[in-house]
Amino acid sequence: MSFTTPRTGQVLLLNGTSSSGKSSIAEQLLLILDRPFFHMPVDAINAMRARRRTLELAPDELAATLARTRAGFHRAVAGMAQAGNDLVVDYVLSEQWRLLDCLTVLNGLDVVFIGVHCSEQELTRRERARGDRQPGQAAAQLRQVHSYGTYDIECDTTTNSPRDCAFTIKQSLAQLPTPLAFDRLRTEFLPPTTTNPEALNPPAPTTRCFPRTNITV
Fold first, then answer.
1. At a CB cut-off of 8 Å and minimum separation 6, what does 176 contact?
2. Which of 18, 63, 135, 193 could tie 204 with a disulfide, CB 3.0–4.6 Å?
3. What is the chain's mean pLDDT, rounded?
């Protein structure tokens, strides 16, 4: 029996800081969406890597490993969607190269860009309650994560539950803007007459802001 792809899959890309509720929204979306979607978080890719050996890496080696992990994640998302799978992806676009690489790798796919917002005060409260995040990490990410200026859908988890946000997203899928946000961003950041070297060769991210034990973002 041969495999044929009748269509490419839809990618619902949830972008927000750590502790903003992306994973909880994704879990609710899988329950209420009409088709079977995969939840594909970057943390699942990080979890595949040997943790002990990763913690032994020098700072420069760690930075390079994390950059390769994220670049590989982008390509794994593209591969799943190209095979016809529908995906809910939760991610933190806290470095511009991540967005540029996604715009390049996911070109031609149906990507719905969804902003998951949360107030800084609530993010700080959640970090303290969880105990598995470095204090101040989410607040530091806020400066970059939502700086790209355009989404197809937005929700705010400061006071809204993950289920409420999931229903907002589902309802909004019926009335998406044209062109989609990724197409607008691609026009802005990746002119068609040039190849963006930063997207194709991601720089090593900084690891100086937080301890080396915090390597999953």
1. 112, 152, 153
2. 63
3. 88
